[in-house]
Amino acid sequence: MQALANKRIILGLTGGIACYKSAEFLRRAQDQGATFDVVMTAGAQQFITPMTFQALSGRPVHTDLWDNRSADNMAHIHLSRDADAILIAPASTNFIARLAQGLADDLLSTLCVARGDCPLIIAPAMNKEMWAHPATQRNIAQLKADGVHVIGPGSGDQACGEIGDGRMLEPMQILAELIAFFQPKSLAGKRVLITAGPTAEPIDPIRTITNRSSGKMGYAIAEAAYQAGAEVHLVSGPVRLEAPYGTKRQWVQSAREMHATVMNLAPNMDVFISVAAVADWYVTNASQHKIKKNAEQNAPMLEFAPNPDILADVAALPQAQRPFCVGFAAETEKLIEHAQAKRLRKGVPLLVGNLAQQAMDADDTQLMIFDESGHQQWPAQSKQKAAQQLVQHIARYL
Ligand code: C5P
């Protein structure tokens, strides 16, 4: 799925060393289907050449208000007219000040003043003292009041050798923010708790019992919920995935650990989506030390007890503390029958079913949605797309 299909973006670059990151951003955003017209200030051209962006975007780069390539010499008006957004990355201290003042003294600033209702997004990039300066903070507050969408800045090492706030977001973070910008904000102001991945039940300090869950579905839902405007808490078993941008992740290993973490967070949440493939049993006689092979080669005798049912326990919280609960069911057969029974058994209003053999570790999935009025089958699609559809669907129940 291309998250920015058919989007035309004006990428504005102003003077700053972070210009090099914008080249990478542009490539990754093109992978998502976006088309770019690039506009560079004189300052930006001190850091990176228009040629780089012409080669990457496949279109001429605009640098000059007085460029006579446009027949009527009004590139500053035409460029933004059918654009979906103007993104300025990096946005320098100076450019932010000029924007706040409404100055129109080069192509990019004039374009911004002339943009009409084309959305403007800026990714500030500067030294931490420049960012903290009262004038910069005043200008940022003014821009926000004017409806400009400010993304970042991040914090950390700076090119000047100092450490602090003011770094431009990383290319993939800017991309995540841009994709989120275009998503409907159906979960704005909502707090969403999601479990994802497998659990790992210790046998000894080295060995665990686990399952084949990759975490991809739960992570895609966390990403989609953030894009829909939610505050997202992800409680994750061991997986090899990066936390989706903007989400708060807590690692857990065993089901009992996941249970404790979830029960602690759940009463403050609006929605709980239980995607984790939780182990049904844990080993009661797990060893403190590595179990050694003995001379007779006897396999160790493991004893099991059932794990707590996290979803059922959240669904049984008193109403004032209970988030809207969504369960998952991965079945290998008789999906409809098992999923309907599971929804009632767990006491949840909404349950999402899929076939384990199709969904496990795959990038695509086909979801079936069960609620009190029956069930509906969704098309096979990427987990990202399914997650967005699910998030919009959940929002309707709230
Ligand atoms: O009982 P079963 O594992 O089939 O139910 C699946 C649903 O219940 C999923 O939403 C899963 O995250 C949740 N679950 C749970 N705690 C368990 C077992 C499953 O929250 N111990």
TrEMBL record:
Domain Flavoprotein: 7-179
Binding-site positions, CTP: 280, 290, 308-311, 328, 342, 346
Stretches the record annotates as Phosphopantothenoylcysteine decarboxylase: 1-191
Cofactor(s) the protein needs: FMN; Mg(2+)
Source organism superkingdom: Bacteria
Catalytic residues (positions): 160 (proton donor)
Ranges for domain DNA/pantothenate metabolism flavoprotein C-terminal: 187-396
UniProt xrefs under Pfam families: DFP, Flavoprotein
InterPro entries cross-referenced by the UniProt entry: CoaB-like_sf, CoaBC, DNA/pantothenate-metab_flavo_C, Flavin_trans-like, Flavoprotein
Entry keyword Plastid: no
Catalytic reactions on record: (R)-4'-phosphopantothenate + L-cysteine + CTP = N-[(R)-4-phosphopantothenoyl]-L-cysteine + CMP + diphosphate + H(+); N-[(R)-4-phosphopantothenoyl]-L-cysteine + H(+) = (R)-4'-phosphopantetheine + CO2
Pathway(s) it belongs to: Cofactor biosynthesis; coenzyme A biosynthesis; CoA from (R)-pantothenate: step 2/5; Cofactor biosynthesis; coenzyme A biosynthesis; CoA from (R)-pantothenate: step 3/5
Cofactor note text: Binds 1 FMN per subunit.
Chain positions covered by the region annotation Phosphopantothenate--cysteine ligase: 192-398
GO molecular function: ligase activity
E.C. no: 4.1.1.36, 6.3.2.5
Keywords on record: Decarboxylase, Flavoprotein, FMN, Ligase, Lyase, Magnesium, Metal-binding, Multifunctional enzyme
SUPFAM superfamilies: CoaB-like, Homo-oligomeric flavin-containing Cys decarboxylases, HFCD
Family under the similarity heading: In the N-terminal section; belongs to the HFCD (homo-oligomeric flavin containing Cys decarboxylase) superfamily.
Function: Catalyzes two steps in the biosynthesis of coenzyme A. In the first step cysteine is conjugated to 4'-phosphopantothenate to form 4-phosphopantothenoylcysteine, in the latter compound is decarboxylated to form 4'-phosphopantotheine. Catalyzes two sequential steps in the biosynthesis of coenzyme A. In the first step cysteine is conjugated to 4'-phosphopantothenate to form 4-phosphopantothenoylcysteine. In the second step the latter compound is decarboxylated to form 4'-phosphopantotheine.
Name of the featured protein: Coenzyme A biosynthesis bifunctional protein CoaBC
Gene name in the database record: coaBC
